[in-house]
Design goal:
Chain B: This is Amino acid ABC transporter ATP-binding protein. Chain B: Keywords: Amino-acid transport, ATP-binding, Cell inner membrane, Cell membrane, Membrane, Nucleotide-binding, Transport. The complex is a heterodimer of chains A (about 220) and B (about 260). Chain A contains nine helices and no strands. With about 220 residues, chain A is mostly helical. Chain B has about 260 residues and is of the alpha/beta class. Chain B has a domain of about 70 residues. Helices cover about 35% and strands about 25% of the residues of chain B. In chain B, helix 3 packs across helix 4. Chain B is globular and about 55 Å long. Chain B starts with 19 loop residues before the first strand and ends with a helix. In chain B, about 45% of the residues are buried. Classes of the chains: A mainly alpha (about 220), B alpha/beta (about 260). Chains A and B meet through helix 6 and helix 7 of A and helix 2, strand 6, helix 3 and helix 5 of B. The complex binds adenosine-5'-triphosphate and magnesium ion. The site of magnesium ion has 4 residues of chain B, from helix 1.
């Protein structure tokens, strides 16, 4: 127990790094995922095919491989960045595919008549998407997006293996130092993850109930 | 609102410069031949009612006229301009033909006013204040001015369809397409929509109307076009068509809908 309480600051810095990683990778991949979803429904066949290929490759690759790629292959190509940045890149690449599919499911839930009416008054593809489709897709898409975010939070733990001092790697360091209290240390680590993921999950259920009720 | 009675007078077509021309149009869905060598030309100010059995290609014909669907062969011109394949130019030209759908398709997340102003602001580049002033006038004209700040889900189907007509009119289209505009409505709301359409016809709008409302066809149409299996089989003034349909399939079709 004291192994946890005495080292609270270490947890808190770990938590802060996890949050930062989540925030940056989450924003980047949400934005990129939305663009990729737009590509996947665009009238341009090449964009559709490229988008589909990206999603299928990334979704079916273990995230650890994506991390390996970012942390070991990119430096070989002469790109030298901090491990934190590599972790951001890896998480963003990976979760772009998942955010894309969540957004695309939301888009598909909007009645096709809406896009048709938008095209009929002369709106282009981008305008139809921005003004008509996405605002309506957002309602059904928020809960699945939060679920992707939760998965992302949990995946930040993989960054520990690549030298980022986020929550899990700080906990590992602690566990090594306080070897007789490993159980406590890891238990507390779980608790800190839950601190992030449980509220997110509750928010998702709350929004789900609220949005379904409103529509 | 005026009512035209017993077959509207023919529009002035002195110069014969048709607004909409389809020539040899063929459309396939995969191997399914949906429009077969369709020739149709529509004068300015003309009201054409398109009828035919389910699956005969009426909706497809409407949708090809403003390129919501592409065609495999033939030519479609609006005001002598051929529609381009895709892209920004197509989007602009598309807005010159207004479209009204069976299921209204008002933008569900926007008020009626926002529905009507979206196109003028985003496509025509109108200032918001100007677009809103024009939109209010149109909403008043179709009788839903009092609901301008409501969402589509808060008003009746008849009111939604009238607002959808206002939305299409806001683009100042050269022609209007109506694809079964009253088929999704409760009976008591059908007339309020047909009245708006009659008013529009009387004001000289060029209209293509797919409908099962034979009363409307008789009183407001200049021509009735009968389609079956992707072909135009008959094209006649309403009186001639209803009194004396020439082809067997048209007679068959009429006997079925009139008993209903
Ligand atoms: N998107 C599509 N893909 C494949 N086939 C289609 C598609 N849309 C329509 N069809 C087919 O094309 C034919 C013509 O359809 P269309 O909707 O134009 O008929 P319609 O005359 O409007 O019929 P209804 O009175 O039922 O509305 C039908 O056989 C239909 O099954
Ligand atoms: Mg139809």
């Amino acid at each position: 127990m004291s192994a946890v309480l005495d080292n609270l600051p270490i947890y808190v810095t770990g938590l802060a790094w996890t949050l930062l990683l989540t925030l940056i990778a989450g924003s980047v991949s949400l934005l990129a995922g939305t663009l990729l979803a737009a590509a996947r429904i665009s009238p341009v066949p090449l964009l559709r095919a490229g988008g589909a290929l990206y999603v299928h490759v990334l979704r079916n690759t273990p995230i650890t491989i994506v991390f390996f790629f970012a942390a070991f292959v990119l430096p070989q190509l002469g790109i030298s960045l901090s491990y934190f940045t590599f972790a951001v890149i890896a998480l963003s690449l990976y979760y772009t595919a998942f955010f894309c599919e969540a957004v695309r499911a939301g888009i598909n839930a909007v009645s096709p008549g809406q896009a048709e009416a938008a095209r009929a008054i002369g709106l282009g593809f981008g305008q139809t998407l921005c003004h008509v489709i996405l605002p309506q897709a957002l309602r059904s898409v928020v809960p699945p997006l939060i679920n992707v975010l939760i998965a992302l939070i949990k995946s930040t733990a993989v960054a520990s293996a690549f030298g980022v001092a986020e929550l899990l790697s700080n906990a590992e360091a602690l566990a090594n130092a306080e070897s007789n209290a490993v159980l406590w240390v890891l238990g507390a680590t779980c608790l800190f993850y839950l601190l992030l993921t449980v509220p997110a999950g509750l928010l998702a259920s709350y929004l789900e109930a609220k949005l379904v009720f409103n529509s | 609102m005026q009512f035209a009675v017993e077959g509207a007078p023919a529009p002035a077509t002195a110069g014969r410069d048709p607004l909409i021309v389809l020539a040899g149009v063929n459309k396939f869905y995969g191997s399914h031949h949906v429009l077969r060598d369709v020739d149709l030309s529509i004068e300015r100010g003309e009201v054409v009612v398109l009828i035919g059995p389910s699956g005969s290609g009426k909706s497809t014909l409407c949708r090809t006229i403003n390129r919501l669907e592409s065609i495999q062969s033939g030519r479609i011109t609006i005001d002598r301009q051929a529609l381009p394949e895709e892209g920004a130019e197509l989007a602009r030209l598309r807005s010159e033909v207004g479209m009204v759908f069976q299921s209204f398709n008002l933008f569900a997340h926007m008020t009626l006013l926002q529905n009507v102003t979206l196109g003028p602001i985003k496509v025509r580049g109108l200032r918001r204040a100007d677009a809103e002033e024009k939109a209010m006038a149109l909403l008043e004209r179709v009788g839903v001015g009092g609901h301008a700040h409501k969402l589509p889900s808060q008003i009746s189907g008849g009111q939604q369809q009238r607002a959808a007509i206002a939305r299409a009119l806001a683009m100042e289209p050269k022609a209007m397409l109506f694809d079964e505009p009253t088929s999704a409505l409760d009976p008591e709301m059908i007339n309020e929509v047909l009245d708006v359409m009659r008013g529009l016809a009387d004001s000289g709008m060029t209209m293509i109307v797919v409908t099962h409302e034979m009363g409307f066809a008789r009183s407001a149409a200049h021509r009735v076009v009968f389609m079956d299996q992707g072909s135009i089989l008959e094209d006649a003034p309403p009186a001639a068509f209803f009194e004396n349909p020439r082809c067997e399939r048209a007679r068959d079709f009429l006997s079925k809908i009139i008993t209903h």
